[in-house]
Predict the structure.
Amino acid sequence: MVYRVFVEKKPALAGEARALLSDLRTLLGMENLTGVRMFNRYDVENIDESLFTYAKQVVFSEPQLDIVYDALPTVSGASVFAVEYLPGQFDQRADSAAQCIQILSQGERPDVRSAKIYLLEGALSEDDIARIKHYVINPVESREAVMDKPATLKTEYDIPTEVDTLVGFTALDEDSIAAFVKEKGLAMDNDDLRFCRDYFKNEEKRDPTITEIRMIDTYWSDHCRHTTFLTTIDNVSFEDPMMEETYKDYLATREFLGRTKPINLMDIGTLAAKYLRKTGKLDKLDESEEINACTVKMQINVDGKPEDWLLLFKNETHNHPTEIEPFGGAATCIGGAIRDPLSGRSYVYAAMRVTGAADPTVPVSETMAGKLPQRKIVTTAAAGYSSYGNQIGLATGQVDELYNPGYAAKRMEIGAVIAAAPAENVRRECPDPGDIVILLGGRTGRDGCGGATGSSKSHTEESLSSCGAEVQ
């Protein structure tokens, strides 16, 4: 049996609903909109009635803050619609509720599904309601939900028994290569795929599976291989003499280090550290094959005694993910920065956030085609960043929000952290054949599949509806 409950903030605490009312009236010009009420709807299955009744007051709501309804209140003349996450998209609200109920019952975890209900008051036309839906529903992650209660929350999926082989891949001609890249939504371009075709034709002498092509596409992306930064620079001219002198210094340093790899932005960006290392000026830098955060050896005084510590720094950029899915993109921006020093066995102490946005106060009608409104990105990204940090108790000591018209075309979202650990607590070893690998964490959904490839693609106005799975 599926149980259902609706939860609304008490009027004095309904800040989210008041903020949405303000946005709709000022940004969309909804002068006839007189009120907005918002409800969190929960559907629960695999739970007995007594536990559900108890959970209504201790899991789904807080009595001092919320009003609980068994049925949605009816308001004469009001328009009502519901929004839910896409199937397979991670629903943190529902997942947290299911975990809490399992803690209470000490039994099996129930199935929980959530939705947001919007109740709009005022004389609104069908066009007004459609515009409001367009504003609050991000097609990358969510959709309009039906109002009826389902008979069950279980979703049946067809489980594939074998991996598809791309029959005829090695025989693709030029037109077919371009069509294949577009059909599969690959980050690789035509030249990349042509290289793959020739490799499988001449070396493997077989057609690849779709899994192999997807894996190559992922590891060929900017996120993993830094394709853009590794592009060879073979023709350089200067208008500024100072820049030319700096470039000559770079070439001289390359020669000193014996660098023979092609000149590219990655080499330019990392050469100074290589030089300092070779000349003995980076002796405090900690090196390891497994580290993905800058680690510096240092000595500090603890209760008057010197101790050897490791200080770690990490930053992450999630410009494209935050632009198409602001909450998840910004959350996993700071999450990615946290992950790397944490995997280096250190404790993350503090964070910094730097963002770039266009004017969030302009009317929605001025939104660039194929983009979410700036107001939507700015506010929802802030909520996503703080959500991740708050859940692990991370303090963000500096937040800089930069506004410039240039950020309308491409948002900037940067998260950075500082971490530390006593050196004696960190032991690093290389894996050996036969070692056991444990995968620990939550279940994955549609979100994150191909997450590394999204920022490597050329995007169009249709990207919002086609790149939904590419936010890690």
Remarks:
- The radius of gyration is 26 Å.
- The chain has a mean pLDDT of 90.
